[in-house]
Amino acid sequence: MLKKEALATIEQTIGYQFKNKQLISQAFTRSSYHYEHPEEQSNEVMEFIGDSVLSLLVVNNLLDRYTGKDGSGLYSCLNEGDFSSIKSFMVNKSFLAKKMRKLELHQFLRMSIGDEKQGVENSISVLEDLFESIVGAIYIDVGRNLNKTRKIVIPLLEIEKELDEYDGDIKISYKNLVQEWCDKYGYGKPIYDTYQTQNGFVSTCYIREYNIKEEGLGNNRKEAEKAAAEIVYLQLEDIESSFASVDISFENAINMLQEYCQSKDIPKPIYETINDVIFDDNSHEFTVRCVLNGRYTEGKGERVKEAKKEAAYNMLSYLRIIK
């Protein structure tokens, strides 16, 4: 179980005192920690519960704000498409991760040593999972009472504040977000390869610089490209957040670049010593080239290892991982 100090901070932050402390402790336990400590249950089921409860809470909140009843039945200020867009916005990974970062509770996550080294607690998906797990734990602790859960969770989501800001006009264009991301970091335009099948359309969104390639399905070309862009955008956000709390330097550049390749499931970088200049005092200046996905950067140093570190650091800079 989490330490008392951690439990107290969590409860104070979310504004709820748990009757069963084990539930909130479980919400902060990743499956990787469970594998190393089988006696501790993971938060996977909590995520599932929280995901379902969140959707219903958001829908109820939208109903209160935008609908009413009269003699003709239920009337609404928004159409079905508007409701769907707003709900998607309020329960998507980026939104929940943003709220989780604001709460600053991911520092209490229990995870495996491997996860800790990779800093996974800062990734979009892990932050989203944690938020959902907390909601699931609250729902179970209040006896599956949706109204009680709502009073605790809605303030954490700040739904009213978000809706006031957008005035109900929330429309997510993932194609625009992907393009803006590429423009922000100086990359080329994303490539979309879309074709029709017997069951609809399939689109592949490709970001060449990161070797990211994802497929999306839809009833038409627009829907398929939007679906592909959404998957790609979430990966791009993960790239930013995965190194958010890590201080990258020449000393850890080689390891950080290797972890990046592992996280993106791409081949590891290849290092080549391409030059060795010997000076009059017998000192050396080595030049090492780091090759990754057909692109390369170079580094120099008195020793091969120093040159290799600089080459790796320059590659991280090229990939925009170093801001």
Topology:
Blueprint: H1 4-14, H2 21-27, H3 31-36, H4 44-66, E1 67-70, E2 73-76, H5 80-91, H6 93-103, H7 113-118, H8 124-141, H9 146-157, H10 159-166, H11 174-184, E3 191-197, E4 200-207, E5 212-218, H12 221-242, H13 253-263, E6 270-278, E7 284-292, E8 295-301, H14 304-318
Antiparallel strand pairs: 1-2, 3-4, 4-5, 6-7, 7-8
Structure in a nutshell:
By secondary structure, the chain is an alpha+beta fold. 54% of the residues lie in helices and 17% in strands. The protein has 3 domains: 4-166, Ribonuclease III domain (Ribonuclease iii, N-terminal Endonuclease Domain, Chain A), CATH 1.10.1520.10; 174-242, Double Stranded RNA Binding Domain (2-Layer Sandwich), CATH 3.30.160; 253-318, Double Stranded RNA Binding Domain (2-Layer Sandwich), CATH 3.30.160.20.
